[in-house]
């Protein structure tokens, strides 16, 4: 037993020394590529290396913006890309990061830089389903692709049913009428819409283009105009299209999410993360309050605060002691800033992001062990959010909050028309 303990102790020391040496070599490689003078802000490279020295997300770990530590690392990495003085410096920094940073973390920051850097705005970004196919195609299909690759098959057509609604009677096929896995929810009739590859890709890119954490005063020149109104418009239009799909297939209107009532429709995403771990399945009739009581309590509290703002038609800005009205000109933008949680919203501590808190509550109903193991459900990543029926139940609840504001608006006058 003593020898075993000694061996384990030596192994730990060896691994720690190796990791420290690898990190030092990577930092030195980055320092040789780019210097402080290559950035608009000389402290950028030092801040990034300091954060990298403390430990970034491991390359094969799950990437999730639900982790505060990961969000902080994303900002440091994005700053490294965004504040590069020229394209050559940006290219060198990106080349280094692609090799040494978690691939999802790199893809997020790199894509965001391509969207917002002035010298990259006309670049064509490949579809996200080509970069991360495991988030869009079922796991069994990806297994067939890997198997064909191993067998050196150069040409083969892969077919899968992306509706989640099987029409054959093979009991071994997921979702088949005679399968024990089939739950028979009528909501699956419109999974041709919710699991559409193009729709999921479009939603992820829209939300990626307008991140709530990006400050327009720090990142001058970024196209963040009317970010709050865009947030409302996207979700209102998406919900309208989803409702039309339901009615066209003989389904009733979408139920509104209630925190203390069961979510009747469970969901199995059938897709996996890039490292092979599957997205978690939500069983039928799950009650959010039973699993995330403290999170649900906070969500209700944030809802009440927003409703108070709507009822008073104004919000107090403690930064400059002014009362900001929810008027016809800027009211929708201001309200959306509070809901979405953009950086320029008033009273940031009193109004945390209601939207992201609710998504985190619904997307991580299972508690994980640490910051580097956020294995959630479909709502846990932008690439798969719109697949889950509960997403639209939440959007229904979200839009009902906006209705309190829209009902206070007067009709357009003849002069305005």
Indicate the overall shape.
globular
The total strand number stands at 2
Radius of gyration: 24 Å
Mean pLDDT: 82
By DSSP (H or I, 4+ residues per run), the number of helices equals: 15
Count of distinct structural domains: 2
What pattern of helices and strands is seen along the backbone?
HHHHHHHHHHHHEEHHH
Tell me the distance between the termini: 85 Å
Any low-confidence stretches, pLDDT <50, length ≥5? Answer: 1-22, 167-183
CATH level-4 homologous superfamily of the largest domain: Di-copper center containing domain from catechol oxidase
SSE-based structural type: mainly alpha
Q: Do you know the CATH topology of the largest domain? A: di-copper center containing domain from catechol oxidase
The largest sheet, given as strand count, sense and whether it forms a barrel, is: 2 strands, antiparallel
The CATH architecture classification of the largest domain is Orthogonal Bundle
Task: Tell me the layout of helices and strands.
Elements: H1 2-33, H2 44-54, H3 68-82, H4 87-100, H5 103-116, H6 128-131, H7 139-150, H8 191-194, H9 197-209, H10 227-248, H11 288-291, H12 293-312, E1 314-317, E2 322-325, H13 331-340, H14 354-363, H15 389-406
Antiparallel strand pairs: 1-2
């Amino acid at each position: 037993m003593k020898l075993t303990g000694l061996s384990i102790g030596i192994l730990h020391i060896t691994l720690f020394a190796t990791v420290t040496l690898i990190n030092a070599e990577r930092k030195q490689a980055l320092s040789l590529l780019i210097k402080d003078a290559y950035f608009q802000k000389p402290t950028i490279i030092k801040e990034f290396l300091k954060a990298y020295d403390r430990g970034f997300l491991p390359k094969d770990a799950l990437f999730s913006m639900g982790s505060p530590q990961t969000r902080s690392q994303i900002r440091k990495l994005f700053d490294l890309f965004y504040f590069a003085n020229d394209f050559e410096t940006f290219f060198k920094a990106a080349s280094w990061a692609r090799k040494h940073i978690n691939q999802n973390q790199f893809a997020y920051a790199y894509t965001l830089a391509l969207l917002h850097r002035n010298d990259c705005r006309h670049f064509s970004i490949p579809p996200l389903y080509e970069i991360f196919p495991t988030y869009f195609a079922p796991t069994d299909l990806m297994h067939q692709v890997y198997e064909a690759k191993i067998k050196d098959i150069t040409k083969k057509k892969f077919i899968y049913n992306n509706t989640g609604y099987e029409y054959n009677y093979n009991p071994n096929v997921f979702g088949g009428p005679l399968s024990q896995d089939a739950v028979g929810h009528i909501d699956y009739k419109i999974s041709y819409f919710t699991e559409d590859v193009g729709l999921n890709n479009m939603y992820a890119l829209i939300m990626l283009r307008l991140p709530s954490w990006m400050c327009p005063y720090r990142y001058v020149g970024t196209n963040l105009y009317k970010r709050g109104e865009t947030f409302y418009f996207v979700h209102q239009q998406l919900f309208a299209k989803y409702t039309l799909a339901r009615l066209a297939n003989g389904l009733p209107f979408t139920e509104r999410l209630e925190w203390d009532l069961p979510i009747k429709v469970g969901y199995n995403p059938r897709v996996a993360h890039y490292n092979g771990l599957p997205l978690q399945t939500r069983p039928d009739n799950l009650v959010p309050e039973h699993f995330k009581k403290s999170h649900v309590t906070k969500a209700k509290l944030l809802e009440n605060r927003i409703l108070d703002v709507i009822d008073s038609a104004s919000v107090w800005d403690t930064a400059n002691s002014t009362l900001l009205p929810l008027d016809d000109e800027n009211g929708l933008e201001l309200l959306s800033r509070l809901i979405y949680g953009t950086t320029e919203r008033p009273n940031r501590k009193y109004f945390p992001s209601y939207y992201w808190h609710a998504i985190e509550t619904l997307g991580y109903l299972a508690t994980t062990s640490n910051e580097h193991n956020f294995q959630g459900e479909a709502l846990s990543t932008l690439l798969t959010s719109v697949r889950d029926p509960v997403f639209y139940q939440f959007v229904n609840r979200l839009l009902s909050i906006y209705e309190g504001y829209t009902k206070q608006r007067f009709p357009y006058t003849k002069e305005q028309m």
